[in-house]
Amino acid sequence: MSIWSSLMSALAVYNSMGSLGALGDISFHVSAWNDIHTIEDLQRNAKNRTATHAIIGKKPFTEYLGPDLQTISFKIKLNAQWGVNPVLEVEKLVGYCEEGTVLTFTLGGKKFGKNKWMITSVGEAVKYYDNRGAILSSEVDISLQEYVEPKLSQTIEREGDWA
User: Fold this and answer.
1) Percent helix, strand, coil in the chain (nearest 5)?
2) I need a labelling partner for 25 at 20 to 30 A (CA). Which of 37, 68, 74, 156 fits?
3) Pair 48, 64: CB distance under 8 Å
4) Residue 14 has pLDDT above 80, yes or no
């Protein structure tokens, strides 16, 4: 097999790699060429908002106010052996979290949920170092919260309100 055909074969495998999904520009995928970047333990939570109103001498009653923001949490295993730089990936995630970056989350080629998402927390557990202290493997816990764009009609501040 020539070098050219070997290169073309490797490129064909890379281009056909299985895309599991993405969080913004971070792609989750698996390929045959030591490039593994997957998610696991995905959990989604949805709840509603209620108010409890006290009544003298009787049980309080509950009022349904509407849906609350959904949350998602999952883990990512980052390993240098799998073609991923754990330090750079974690720094990117922490940056998105601290900057309040709003991201699209896709899974299986489809947008996950009705809205975009914001990273609310990133937790890193370093698993392995090399003999110089460089991080070789990390397990990262990521929590996301649904981000709903404010509508103009929901804006409280209007011209003249402060007069």
Assistant:
1) 20, 50, 30
2) 68
3) yes
4) no
User: Which architecture does CATH list for 17-149?
Assistant: Beta Barrel (2.40)
Residue identified by tokens 């490039």 is: 35
Largest CA distance in the chain: 88
Which residues lie closer than 8 Å to 150 by C-beta, 6 or more apart?
none
CA atoms within 13 A on the CB side of 49: 6
Classify burial at 96, counting beta carbons within 10 Å of its beta carbon; exposed 0-12, middle 13-18, buried 19 or more: buried
Cα–Cα distance for residue pair 34/16, rounded to 1 Å: 14
The ranges assigned to domains in the chain are 17-149
Place of tokens 């923001």: 69
- pLDDT at residue 153 greater than cutoff 70: no
